[in-house]
Predict the 3D structure of the following.
Amino acid sequence: MSVVTLSESNFEEEVIRSDKKVLIDFWASWCGPCRMMSPVIDEIAAETDSIKICKVNVDDEPSIAAKYGIMSIPTLLVVENGEVTGKSVGAVPKENVLALIGN
């Protein structure tokens, strides 16, 4: 499954109303640890279709980051039925991301 880039205009539909669990990667292009996590997130997206994988560039969409209290990046959030059910801050190994999403 491909990675969905989130914005204010598609956030409600892609995350809040999603019928699947959603993993959101909050990142920025200038963030070294974010660049380390990007291939991991892309790999997980390619391997599974049981969860929707999304990314939010915090520089482009600061209101989404503020809504979820994102203070450090990279931050990964798991959202189910519109509610945050998991969170990870900082660069982590793939195994940790898989554990976070329950795969």
